[in-house]
Specification:
Layout: H1 21-24, H2 31-38, E1 67-74, H3 89-112, E2 119-120, H4 138-151, E3 161-168, H5 182-203, E4 207-213, H6 244-263, E5 273-278, E6 281-282, H7 296-313, E7 323-324, E8 391-398, H8 400-403, H9 440-447, H10 480-493, E9 503-509, H11 512-516, H12 527-544, E10 548-553, H13 561-566, H14 574-585, H15 592-613, E11 623-628, H16 658-672, E12 755-762, H17 764-767, H18 804-808, H19 844-857, E13 867-873, H20 876-881, H21 891-908, E14 912-917, H22 922-930, H23 938-944, H24 946-949, H25 956-976, E15 987-992, E16 997-999, H26 1022-1037, E17 1046-1048, E18 1111-1118, H27 1120-1123, H28 1158-1165, H29 1195-1208, E19 1218-1224, H30 1227-1231, H31 1242-1259, E20 1263-1268, H32 1288-1291, H33 1293-1296, H34 1303-1320, E21 1334-1339, H35 1369-1383, H36 1427-1430, H37 1434-1461
Parallel strand pairs: 1-2, 1-3, 3-4, 4-5, 6-7, 8-9, 9-10, 10-11, 12-13, 13-14, 14-15, 16-17, 18-19, 19-20, 20-21
Helix pairs in contact: 3-7, 4-5, 5-6, 6-14, 10-12, 12-15, 19-21, 21-25, 29-31, 31-34, 31-37, 34-37
Length: 1475
C-alpha cells in the first residue's frame, strides 16, 4: 500500500515541539534546539482534507482528531557507548522521565495538527533503585499514569479518547548470567508486561494502546550519556557482552511472545480498547539528519515518535517485520479513504499464528572398520605420506558451525541454540564415540585412540572442554588470525602435545557471517579481503606449526538458506534468521542484490581456491594446506515431499543439527581420502554415505603431491579498482557562453550560463554503475561511478570526461550539484545525484523529496533564486519486472508514480527546468545479450530482466512486452504534453526523446558491439555515457516538436551551440509549440496484455486451484447497477432501458477491445464462455437475473431463479462446469434505511446474503461466488448540476436530505460501514468452507471508493449516466477492471478503492506463480488443520449488526421531521430508488 504525502529524514517536522514543564512539572526541553531541528521540514499530513465527524464510540473507527490525551509508561533510558551502563538511580530517573516525556511531546505535536486540544501527559518516574530488568516496574507506572489521568481536570477520564504508549525493552540493562537463567528471566519480564496491559484494559475506558518494543532505542544515541558512570562491573553481576546470536534469540522470544499475545485477542474484548504492537527499531541511521542540527539523542526521540505515529496510521506488512530505517522513512498520513487509526480488527488482519512443529530427536552414530587402520611403521617426516593413524593432534578454527551452536538442542528449544555443543562439532567434536556421535575426531579415534585436541561437552572457546576447538560463534574471516595464534599457543603449552614431533590435523571453515554481512560493509567483506584474512591465518600456521595437515573447507552455497527461510510450511523463527543474515534473506528473488550475492559467494570460493593453489603453503615437506570442496555446491536437503528438511538444522533454522554435523563429518573425511582434482564438491546430506577407508594403493591423506596433481596457474596480477578513462573528452566550440544580462524570471528565457544547480534522479544508469569497470571485472559493476554519470557527473573536465555538467561548467564555472568519484546516494560526493540502483518509478517520489531537501538545506544553494536543471530517467527496471506483476508495473501505475514525483517538484521547486529522458528500451539489451552469449553473463542478466530476456523470439509474450513499452513511452509523453507543469513562468518539464530509438553499433559479423557496455552487458560504460551526454545537450537546444528521437552510438556527435537567434534551452513556449489535443476516446475497451494461458491440464476439482480459463459459466444477481440501467443512455428517456450487454459483471457485448466487462475479459481465456448478457432485451439477458430496484430481501428469489435457469439450460453441465457468480446489492436498502430501519437493517441484509449463499451451496457444485461490497454512498451528495436530471434527495433520500456534518448523516455513514462489514465477514464464515468445490470471496474495491473528479475538482460526470447517478459505460468498465483485479489479489491484500484513471492497460494478468483466482485458502489465511477455530460464527455477524436497528429508530424520527419540513420544496419524483 502506498503512502500519502511523504516526508523523509526520519520525520523532521515543521511543527515546533512544545515544552511541557509548566504543565507537567518536568525539566525544560531545550526548546530552541528542538525548534532548530524541526523548523525546516513541512508536516506532510493535511488535516483539512479529512472530513470532521463526532467522536467515535468504537476504537476501530477512531480518528486521530478524536484523541484528547497522549501518555506513556515504560523505560526509555539509553545505554552508554561500548556497553558502559549507568549506576546512579537519580540519573536513571531523570534520564527516563526526560526521554519518555520528549517522545510523548513529539507524538502529541503530531496529533495536535488534527486535535488542537490534545494533552501531553507526563511519564511516571521509574523506581529509585535501579531495576535489574528495565521492565520490572511497568505495573507501578501504569497505576500512577491512571491516577494522573483521573485527577487531570482538563481530561474527561471516562469519555475522552486516550493514546497510551507502553515502552517495553527487549534488551535487559544487564544480561542474565549464567545463560541458563535467560528463559526464566525473560518470562518474568513478559508477565510484568501482561500485568501492565491487563491493568490498563481493566481500568481505562476509551484507550488506544501502543505496545512499542524499544530494544534498539538506546543504541540510536552514542553521545547522550556523558555524565553517567562508566564501569559495567560496578552495576552488573556479569559483564560479558551478549553475542549477536544471543541478542537475536532474545528479541525473537519477546517479539514472538508479543505477537502471540496480540493474536490471542486478549485486549479486543471491548469496543473501547485495543492494543497494537510496534516492532523494534533496527539500524536506525541518524546520519540522515542534517549535520550539527541536534544531538543524536534528540534525533532518536523524533525517530521513535515517528515510528509510533506511522504504526498507528498503517503498519507496513506483518508486525514481525523489522523497522528498516536505513532507508528514508516516509510519514504516513490519514486519508479520506483510510481516516481511522489502525486496529487488527478494522483492517482484517488474521489473528492467528502458526504453531511450531517439533523435530524428532535422532542419534547419528555409525559403525565402520577398515582393513588397514594402523599407523606408519615409522613416524613419517613428510605430510605426503601421512596415514590417518599417524595423526596425534586435532584442532579447528571457524565460527558457530564449528563451535557447535545448537547441535544438540532439544527440538523446538530456540534458546538452547546459544549452547555451544563442541563435543558434537563435525570437524573436532569428541563426545562418546563413533557408534553414537559421528565426527571427524571420532573417526580418527578409531585409527588412533590416543588422539588429543578434540572438544567435548559444551562451553565457549575458552573453556577446558573446548581444548583445540578455537572456533568462536559469530566469527568472520578477519577473526581467523587471532584464533590461529590462540590455537598455536594452546598446542605449545599443553603437556600432552609434543609440538615439534606430533602430526596435527587442523580444519578451518569460515565465511557464513561474512556473506551475511556483506551488504552492510561491501569492502570489508569483499572476496579479496576474505581470502586475504584466510591467508593471514594460514601464514601463522605455516610459519609456526611443524608437522601439520590443514584442511580448508571451502565456503558453502549460502543462498540455499533462502529456501528454508521462504518455505511457509516450515515453521522457523524468521526474526532470528533475518537478524543474523539479512543480506542473504531479505533481498528479493531475481534482484541485482541476489545476483551479487551469488557471484560474491562464488568469488569467495574461487579466491580461496586460488590462494591454496598458489603453492604458497607447499614450501615445506611437513606442511600442506588442502582445499576440501564438498560444501561448494551443496544444496538444501529435501524431504520426500520436496520440502526443505528442517531436521538438518537446529531449532533456529540456521545452525546445523546433530544430524547435519554427522553428515558433514563423513563428507569431510571422504574428501580427505579423495585425490586432488577428483574430490567431490557436492555433498548430498539427504543420503547416508559410507565412510571411506584408505586403500592399500592409496593409504595416505591425499595431498597435491601424492595425488600427482599440478596446481593450475593462478593469476598473480591483483585485481584493482577500475579507474575512469580520460579519453572520452569533447571539444566545445561555442563562442557565446555568457549568461543573461540579468537573472531571468522565465524558464523560457533560460540560457545555459544561467544554470546554477544541476541534479538527477533515476536508477543505476544515472547512479553510474559499472561506467569505468574493466572488462571481465564483473563484481566492479556494483561500483557507482557517479562522477562519470551522463546527466550528473562532474569528474575531471570536458576535455577528458564528457558529461552534461562538464558541458555546463564551460558556461558557468560555479555550477553546483554534480557528483564526483564513486559512492552511493547518501555520500557527500554524490551531492545532487540522488539516483538509486534498482529503483523503479515507484521510488521516484522518495528520490525527489530527498533531492529537494538537500537543495533546501545546502548553504551553497540559494533555493529560491538559483536556476536548476533536474534530469529524470526511469523505467527500464519497471519493464524488466512487468511480467511478475502486470498490475504493479502497469503503464497506468508507471505514469501515476511519474506524475507524483513531477507534481512534488512542481509544487516545491522554484526556477527549475526538468528534463525527462526517455528510458533505455530493454529490447536493446535483449539484442546485445542474446547475440553475445559468449561475452555476456546471460544467466545473471536473465535474473535481472527475465520478462525481456527469457521470452522467445516472435512469441506472443515478446509482442505484448513491446506493446507495454510503447504504452510506457506514450504515458510519459501524454503526461508532459498535458500542460500540467506549465502553469508557472519559472517551471517547465521537457521531454528529451533521444533515447527513444537507439542504433546499436555492429561488429563486422553483424553482432552488436558490447564495447559500449559494462561487463554485465546491462549497464552503459563510459563510452556509452559520453554519447548520452552529447545527445542530451543537443536535445535541450532543439525546439520542442523537432527534437531528434534517436541515438546512433557509433556516430561522431558534435556538441551544438546556442545561437544569437536561439540562445535559450528550448521549451514548448520558446519553440512556439502547441501541445496536441488529447485524441478522442472511441470506446471504453481495454487492451489485453496477458500471455496466453490455457485452462488447467484437467478440470480442477478444487475451487482453490481455479484458473480463469476454467470458468465455463458466468452469472450475476443484484439491482439496476447489474442490469446496467442507463449505461448507454443518451438522454433521460433512455433511462428506462437496461443495457445488460454493457453490465460490468455480466455483460458480453462486443469484445474486450471495445467493451470492458468481466465476461469479455474471461472470454480472452475461454472463448466458449456462456451465461453473459447481450443487448438490451430480457430475452438476451442470459444468466443476469438482477432486477431494477432490487433490495437484499430479493436476493434469495433471484438465486432460486438462477438455479432454475442453470438446471434447465442444455448448454450447462451442472455437475462438471465451473460457475462464476457475482452478487452486488444493498444500495437501495441503504438509501431507504432511515425510512424503515427494521426492514432495511444490517441484520436483514446479512441474513439475505446468507439465505442466498445457502441456496447456491445446496444446489450448485463447482461454484466461485464474488460478493462485491457496497460502495460509500455519501459521495453521491457531491454530484449536482444543471446536467443532472434528478437529485440525491429524490433517489437516495437517507443520504440526500441530511445536512452536511449533521448527526443524521454521520449515522448513515456508520450504517454504510456496518453494511460493508456485514458482507466482508462472510468470507471468513466456516459454513461455506466445508466443500472443496465452493468458495465465497468478498471483493472490496468499492469499500473506500470516492466519487471521481475532473481536472477542475468537480465530479467527473463521464462516469455517470444522464441521471448523474447510474453508471455510464465508462463507469461499468472501471467496475469490471476493479472486480477482475480484486479477484487476482490475495484475500487480506485486496485493493479497497477504485482507481479512476483512464488507461487501456489496467487489466491485471495471472502470473505463473499465482495463476488462480484467490480464495481465503490459497491466500494462506487459513490454518492448515484448524479451520473451525478460525471461522467467524454466524451469530457474531448478526450481533454486530443488531445495534444498527437501535440507531435506526432514533434516526428515522429525526429524518421524518426533516422530511416534513422539506416536503413541499422537494416533491418525490417517479424515480423512487436509485439502484
Amino acid at each position: 500500500m502506498k503512502l500519502q504525502p511523504s516526508l523523509f529524514l526520519l520525520g523532521l517536522f515543521l511543527v515546533k515541539v512544545t515544552t511541557t514543564h509548566t504543565a507537567l512539572g518536568n525539566t525544560p526541553w531545550e526548546e530552541q534546539t528542538w525548534s532548530e531541528l524541526l523548523k525546516n521540514f513541512p508536516f506532510p499530513c493535511r488535516p483539512e482534507e479529512i472530513s470532521s465527524n463526532p467522536p467515535s464510540e468504537s476504537v476501530h473507527i477512531l480518528r486521530i482528531s478524536d484523541i484528547k490525551a497522549v501518555g506513556a509508561v515504560g523505560n526509555l533510558e539509553t545505554i552508554p557507548e561500548a556497553r558502559l551502563v549507568l549506576k546512579q538511580p537519580k540519573w536513571i530517573e531523570r534520564n527516563h522521565v526526560q526521554t519518555c516525556t520528549q517522545v510523548v511531546t513529539v507524538l502529541s505535536d503530531f496529533v495536535k495538527k488534527f486535535s488542537p486540544s490534545v494533552l501531553p501527559l507526563s511519564c511516571p518516574p521509574v523506581e529509585e533503585a535501579l531495576p535489574r530488568d528495565r521492565n520490572d516496574d511497568l505495573r507501578i507506572q501504569a497505576r500512577e499514569l491512571v491516577q494522573c489521568m483521573k485527577k487531570n481536570k482538563q481530561l474527561d477520564f471516562h469519555n475522552d479518547w486516550k493514546v497510551i504508549n507502553v515502552f517495553f525493552n527487549a534488551q535487559s540493562l544487564c544480561p542474565p548470567c549464567p545463560s541458563n537463567q535467560q528463559e526464566g528471566h525473560m518470562t518474568s519480564s513478559m508477565q510484568e508486561l501482561i500485568g501492565c496491559l491487563d491493568y490498563l484494559h481493566r481500568e481505562v475506558p476509551k484507550a488506544f494502546v501502543n505496545l512499542v518494543d524499544t530494544s534498539d532505542f538506546g543504541n540510536l544515541s552514542s553521545s547522550h550519556q556523558e555524565d553517567g558512570p562508566r564501569d559495567l562491573n560496578e552495576v552488573c553481576e556479569c559483564s560479558e557482552e551478549p553475542s549477536r546470536l544471543a541478542t537475536a534469540v532474545k528479541r525473537w522470544y519477546y517479539q514472538n511472545s508479543m505477537e502471540n499475545l496480540m493474536a490471542s485477542g486478549r485486549y479486543d474484548t471491548k469496543d473501547t480498547f485495543t492494543v497494537i504492537y510496534h516492532p523494534f527499531l533496527q539500524d536506525m541511521d541518524l546520519s540522515l539528519f542534517p549535520e550539527n542540527q541536534a544531538p543524536s539523542h534528540k534525533k532518536s526521540v523524533v525517530a521513535l515518535a515517528l515510528s509510533v505515529w506511522n504504526g498507528m496510521m498503517d503498519p507496513k506488512g506483518r508486525k514481525e517485520e523489522f523497522f528498516q530505517a536505513r532507508q528514508r522513512i516516509p510519514v504516513k498520513c490519514p486519508t479520506q479513504q483510510h481516516p481511522y487509526l489502525f486496529t487488527y480488527r478494522s483492517r482484517g488482519y488474521p489473528s492467528f499464528f502458526p504453531k511450531i512443529t517439533r523435530n524428532q530427536k535422532m542419534t547419528e552414530g555409525t559403525e565402520f572398520r577398515c582393513p588397514d587402520m594402523n599407523a606408519s611403521n615409522v613416524v613419517p617426516t613428510s605430510v605426503h605420506t601421512l596415514k590417518p593413524a599417524d595423526i596425534k593432534v586435532i584442532g579447528a578454527l571457524g565460527d558457530s558451525l564449528t563451535a557447535g551452536n545448537g547441535a544438540g538442542s532439544p527440538p523446538g528449544d530456540v534458546f538452547n541454540v546459544l549452547v555451544q555443543y563442541r563435543g558434537l562439532s563435525w570437524s573436532i567434536g569428541g563426545d562418546n564415540n563413533i557408534s553414537t556421535v559421528t565426527t571427524l575426531a571420532n573417526i580418527l579415534r578409531e585409527f588412533n585412540p590416543s588422539l588429543v585436541g578434540f572438544s567435548t561437552g559444551v562451553g565457549s572457546h575458552i573453556s577446558d572442554q573446548a581444548f583445540l576447538n578455537q572456533a568462536v560463534a559469530g566469527a568472520k574471516a578477519e577473526d581467523l588470525p587471532i584464533q590461529a595464534k590462540r590455537l598455536v599457543r594452546r598446542m605449545k603449552e599443553d603437556k600432552r602435545i609434543n609440538f615439534e614431533k606430533d602430526w596435527k590435523l587442523i580444519t578451518l571453515f569460515i565465511g557464513g557471517n561474512d556473506l551475511c554481512g556483506y551488504c552492510k560493509h561491501v569492502t570489508r567483506y569483499s572476496a579479496e579481503n576474505f581470502a586475504g584474512n584466510i591467508g593471514k591465518a594460514l601464514d601463522i600456521l605455516h610459519n609456526e606449526v611443524p608437522r601439520a595437515f590443514v584442511n580448508v573447507v571451502n565456503m558453502l552455497t549460502i543462498s540455499s538458506l533462502r529456501e528454508l527461510y521462504k518455505e511457509e510450511k516450515i515453521n522457523c523463527p524468521r526474526t532470528i534468521l533475518r537478524y543474523l543474515c539479512s543480506c542473504v534473506l531479505e533481498i528479493q528473488d531475481n534482484s541485482t542484490e541476489l545476483a551479487t550475492l551469488i557471484e560474491l559467494n562464488k568469488q569467495y570460493q574461487e579466491k580461496t581456491r586460488n590462494l591454496i593453489n598458489s603453492g604458497r603453503y607447499d614450501t615445506r615437506d611437513d606442511f600442506t594446506v588442502v582445499l576440501q570442496p564438498f560444501l561448494e555446491r551443496v544444496s538444501m536437503p529435501k524431504t520426500p515431499e520436496g520440502l526443505p528438511d528442517h531436521t538438518f538444522f537446529a531449532p533456529d533454522c540456521f545452525h546445523f543439527s546433530r544430524k547435519a554435523h554427522a553428515r558433514a563429518a563423513v563428507a569431510l573425511w571422504n574428501n580427505m581420502l579423495e585425490p586432488l582434482g577428483k574430490k567431490n564438491n557436492q555433498a548430498h546430506f539427504e543420503n547416508l554415505t559410507d565412510i571411506f577407508c584408505p586403500s592399500e594403493s592409496e593409504p595416505y591423506l591425499q595431498t597435491y603431491k601424492n595425488s600427482n596433481y599440478t596446481y593450475p596457474i593462478v593469476p598473480t596480477v591483483p585485481v584493482t579498482t577500475s579507474i575512469p578513462s580520460l579519453h572520452y573528452g569533447t571539444e566545445l566550440l561555442c563562442e557565446d557562453r555568457a549568461p543573461s544580462a540579468s537573472i531571468p524570471t522565465s524558464v523560457h528565457a533560460l540560457r545555459p550560463a544561467d544554470i546554477q544547480v544541476v541534479a538527477a534522479v533515476g536508477d543505476s544508469l544515472t547512479a553510474g554503475n559499472g561506467i569505468a569497470t574493466k572488462p571481465n571485472d564483473f563484481m566492479d559493476v556494483l561500483t557507482q561511478y557517479r562522477g562519470l554519470s551522463y546527466s550528473a557527473g562532474g569528474d575531471a573536465s570536458l576535455e577528458n570526461v564528457t558529461t552534461f555538467p562538464n558541458i555546463l561548467r564551460k558556461f558557468n564555472k560555479d555550477l553546483k550539484g554534480f557528483a564526483l568519484g564513486v559512492g552511493n546516494a547518501q555520500e557527500d560526493s554524490a551531492f545532487l545525484n540522488q539516483a538509486v540502483p534498482g529503483a523503479t518509478a515507484e521510488d521516484l517520489l522518495n528520490q525527489v523529496q530527498t533531492l529537494v531537501q538537500k537543495m533546501k538545506t545546502d548553504q551553497r544553494i540559494d533555493f529560491q533564486k538559483d536556476w536548476k536543471v533536474v534530469t529524470v530517467l526511469i523505467g527500464t527496471i519497471d519493464l524488466c519486472y512487468y511480467c511478475t506483476d502486470s498490475n504493479i508495473y502497469s503503464p497506468s501505475k508507471f505514469s501515476s508514480h511519474f506524475q507524483n514525483a513531477l507534481d512534488f517538484l512542481h509544487r516545491e521547486v522554484p526556477r527549475a527546468l526538468i528534463n525527462i529522458v526517455d528510458f533505455m528500451n530493454p529490447i536493446i539489451l535483449r539484442e546485445v545479450i542474446l547475440e553475445n552469449q559468449d561475452k555476456c553473463p546471460v544467466m545473471h542478466a536473465s535474473l535481472l530482466c527475465n520478462c525481456i530476456l527469457l521470452v522467445k523470439d516472435n512469441s506472443t509474450e515478446l509482442s505484448k512486452m513491446k506493446e507495454v513499452i510503447k504504452s510506457y513511452q506514450t504515458s510519459i509523453r501524454e503526461l508532459v504534453e498535458s500542460g500540467r507543469y506549465d502553469t508557472r513562468e519559472d517551471f517547465t518539464v521537457v521531454l528529451q526523446p533521444f533515447f527513444e530509438n537507439i542504433k546499436l553499433p555492429l561488429r563486422p559479423d553483424g553482432i552488436p558491439d558490447v564495447s559500449f557496455f559494462a561487463p554485465d552487458c546491462l549497464h552503459p560504460n563510459q563510452k556509452f555515457h559520453s554519447q548520452l551526454s552529447r545527445a542530451l545537450w543537443n536535445n535541450m537546444l532543439q525546439p520542442v516538436g523537432k527534437k531528434i528521437d534517436f541515438l546512433n552510438l557509433a556516430a561522431d556527435i558534435p556538441l551544438s551551440c546556442p545561437t544569437q537567434e536561439e540562445p535559450f534551452f528550448r521549451t514548448y513556449k520558446n519553440s512556439n509549440y502547441t501541445y496536441p489535443a488529447n485524441p478522442a476516446i472511441e470506446n471504453w475497451g481495454s487492451d489485453f496484455l496477458c500471455p496466453v494461458q490455457g485452462s488447467s491440464s484437467s478440470t480442477p476439482t478444487s475451487v482453490h486451484q481455479l484458473r480463469p480459463a476454467d470458468i465455463k459459466v458466468v452469472a450475476a444477481l443484484g439491482d439496476s447497477l447489474t442490469t446496467a440501467v442507463g449505461a448507454g443512455a443518451k438522454n433521460i428517456t433512455d433511462m428506462s432501458t437496461a443495457w445488460r450487454g454493457l453490465s460490468w459483471s455480466i455483460g458480453g457485448d462486443g469484445v474486450l477491445e471495445t467493451h470492458t466487462t468481466l465476461p469479455n475479459i474471461l472470454k480472452k481465456f475461454n472463448p466458449h464462455l456462456i451465461g453473459f448478457s447481450t443487448g438490451t432485451q430480457k430475452e438476451t439477458a442470459g444468466l443476469n437475473v438482477a432486477a431494477r430496484g432490487a433490495m437484499a430481501h430479493d436476493l434469495p428469489s433471484q438465486a432460486r431463479e438462477l438455479v432454475d435457469k442453470m438446471k434447465k439450460s442444455l448448454e450447462i453441465n451442472l455437475q462438471r462446469d465451473w460457475k462464476l457468480i457475482t452478487i452486488f446489492v444493498g444500495s437501495n436498502d441503504l438509501c431507504l434505511y432511515c425510512q424503515n430501519p427494521e426492514a432495511h437493517s444490517v441484520k436483514n441484509y446479512v441474513q439475505s446474503l446468507h439465505q442466498t449463499l445457502d441456496i447456491f451451496y445446496k444446489e450448485l457444485p463447482r461454484t466461485f461466488i464474488n460478493i462485491v461490497e457496497i460502495m460509500e454512498l455519501v459521495g453521491l451528495r457531491q454530484i449536482q448540476g444543471e446536467e443532472c436530471k434528478v437529485t440525491t434527495q429524490s433517489i437516495c433520500p437517507c443520504f440526500g436530505h441530511s445536512l452536511d456534518n449533521s448527526p443524521e448523516l454521520q449515522e448513515m455513514k456508520n450504517i454504510n460501514r456496518l453494511f460493508q462489514s456485514g458482507s466482508s465477514m462472510i468470507t471468513y464464515n466456516h459454513r461455506y468452507m466445508e466443500r472443496e468445490d465452493f468458495a465465497v470471496v468478498v471483493q472490496p474495491f468499492f469499500q473506500s471508493t470516492v466519487v471521481p473528479m475532473d481536472g477542475k475538482g468537480k465530479p467527473d460526470l463521464s462516469f455517470f449516466s444522464v441521471d448523474c447517478f447510474h453508471f455510464s459505460e465508462r463507469g461499468h468498465a472501471e467496475m469490471a477492471i476493479s472486480l477482475w483485479n480484486n479477484m487476482l489479489e490475495p484475500v487480506g491484500r485486496k485493493q479497497t478503492y477504485n482507481n479512476f484513471t483512464y488507461s487501456r492497460t489496467k487489466v491485471k494478468c495471472p502470473t505463473p506463480d499465482n495463476p488462480y483466482f484467490y480464495t481465503l485458502k490459497n491466500s494462506r489465511l487459513l490454518p492448515q488443520e484448524t479451520n473451525k477455530s478460525f471461522s467467524v460464527p454466524y451469530w457474531a455477524v448478526l450481533v454486530a449488526a443488531g445495534a444498527s436497528f437501535v440507531v435506526g429508530i432514533i434516526l428515522v424520527r429525526a429524518w421524518r421531521i426533516k422530511k416534513h419540513s422539506h416536503k413541499e420544496e422537494h416533491p418525490t419524483t417517479h424515480m423512487s430508488t436509485l439502484f
